[in-house]
Amino acid sequence: MPLPLSTLALTVALNACTGATCLEPRTWPAPMRGVDGASLSSPYQPDARIRVPDEAVYIGAQRWALYDAVDAELHLFVEAGEDRIVDRLYWIQFEAYLPSLPNAEYDFHRSDLERRPLGGADFFVRARFGEGDSDEPEPGSDNAMMRAVLAEAGYALPAETINATMKHILDPDDPREELMIIYIEDLEPTGSTMNEIIETRLEGPLWAGLSQGVLDRAQARISVEAGE
Question: HEC string of the chain?
Answer without folding.
Answer: CCCCCCCCCCCCCCCECCCHHHCCCCCCCCCCCEEECCEEEEECCCEEEEECCCCCEEEEEEEEEECCCEEEEEEEEEEECCCCEEEEEEEEEEEEECCCCCCCCCCHHHCCCEEEEECCEEEEEEEEEECCCCCCCCCCCHHHHHHHHHHHCCCECCCCEEEEEEEEECCCCCCCEEEEEEEEEECHHHCCCHHHHHHCCCCCHHHHHHHHHHHHHHHHHCEEEECC
